[in-house]
């Protein structure tokens, strides 16, 4: 059973930056991909960014150019660097691991962007 623990969320002003971290309980080397999703109050879960085992990255249009996903295999950690934050980025951010046919999720970390 893989456990994912997110951290780094908080309250930030419009235009500010945050770096989210997702620490896995085991190696992330075997994961097909690691991703970040978010869910705002009253809305469904939304894809934010993904990094594959080979290092390929893709982003949602809503964050492209403002967000960078990266991974540190030695630390079994995935990061989400978020810049130029907007109030509409306010959400609970979740880390996801795709491992073979399984998906694992963390508990989330809250990001609140004040206007």
Main attributes?
115 residues, mainly beta, seven-stranded mixed β-sheet
Question: Mind sketching the topology for me?
Answer:
Blueprint: E1 4-7, E2 10-13, E3 18-24, E4 33-39, E5 45-52, E6 57-59, E7 67-72, E8 77-82, E9 91-99, E10 102-105, E11 109-114
User: What is the N-to-C succession of helices and strands?
Assistant: EEEEEEEEEEE
**Rg over alpha carbons:** 13 Å
* Model regions low in confidence, pLDDT < 50 over at least 5 residues: none
Query: Outline, from the CA principal axes?
Result: globular
> How many E-type strands?
11
> What class would the helix/strand composition place it in?
mainly beta
Helix content: under 10%
Span between N and C termini? 40 Å
Query: Mean pLDDT across all residues, rounded?
Result: 96
The oligomeric status of these chains comes to: single chain
